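To: structure desk
From: M.T.
Subject: fold request, one chain
Message: Could you run this one when you get a chance? Sequence is below, nothing fancy, just the single chain.
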Amino acid sequence: MAEEMFQKDETLRMRKRLIGQSCRLFFSDDPVKIVRARGQYLYDENGVQYLDCISNVQHVGHCHPAVTQAAAAQMDLLNANTRFLHDNIVHYADRLAATLPKKLSVFYFVNSGSEANDLALRLARQYTGNKDVIVLDHAYHGHLSSLIDISPYKFRKLEGQKDWVHVAPLADTYRGLYRHDHPDPAQAYADTVKNLIDDMHSKGRKISSFFVESLPSVGGQIIFPRGYFTKVAEYVRAAGGVFVADEIQTGFGRVGSHYWAFQLQGEDFCPDIVTMGKPMGNGHPLACVVTSEEIAGAFTANGVEYFNTFGGNPVSCAIGLAVLDVIEKEDLRGNAVRVGNHLKDLLKQLQIKHPIIGDVRGAGLFVGFELVKDRVDLTPATEEAALLIRRMKEKYICLSTDGPWENVVKFKPPMCFRMEDAERVTEEIDLVLREIQDASLQK
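Reply: Done. Structure tokens follow.
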């Protein structure tokens, strides 16, 4: 029997009473109540349609029939503890392996990106025998205690930095230490990591891992200079550590040209450990860690069994397989290239018209544009960005901001996002930015 559907005000009242207030809603001043969704569209309780530019979790589109059918069929047949032998988990691992470098061949299935990153930390420490971790400034790797410890985005607001955590500058060529005009920003930023390692060694500390989002999202939709990972990996491995690529936001073809965002760094680059999550299950909790036989062997050799009751269960793997099928059959990587390039081109045209747009960047359907009060000092236009988001919501378009100053408007829509969606959203952004400009001139 279906539960009663409340009026929006009653739902909000009950949420405030029953749900932890740190669990914030989108558009918290006036939340949208969504009751159904399909593709790249959300529908509220009154049937009003919203264009969804932010739900990267629903990777192949909200409620894709192939995914929901696969889930229901397997749920009707069997769902069981992952200690029982079953075909789905090996089929799925084999399909994933085909998208990755050959070295990455051993899979551990879990339920969330946070679980995946926590396990990656354990693998790295077991293999290297070391504890210390290098991360990038503004990084976010998950909400478990172990991951808050390596997420400057979180720990700077809480207990602060642990002595075994070392923070390197974010390799941001727009507003970072080394910018577009630097002759070799990849080498310059890699050298900051080497300097950290040298400093650690001088204090008798040893690195277990360099932990990095292949494309930082919370950090502001950052695109790293090509070659940066290769140089960093060389320094990290020489010091006895391993390179962990967090693909939880960016994997499964979001960048279009490649299946994994770390591949943007060069065809020959291969991390030692890759974590994946959000888009894997199209909204179903499914995540994974993949690594080499050597690292997995060291983890097994510790004599402590690893098991995950739900990770890789038959239903989850059936869903994961269906997502892979949809990506291929609907050419969603090709769509990400075509629509993502069109979106960036449209935003760059807006950049010419609106001085407040300081930078447009992205790969595939991972796109951001940064609002600044001036293009010389790059003063973040945080209030204007928040106003833009509110006004776009009034136009039935869901966007959000990220970056250290919440001034980067981000696009991570379902991969079925279309050319006309890109045109609609940029036309409305143009109108709102004109309003903001006119209002500032009248002050």
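Reply (cont.): The first strand starts at residue 34 and ends at 38. Let me know if you need anything else for the meeting.
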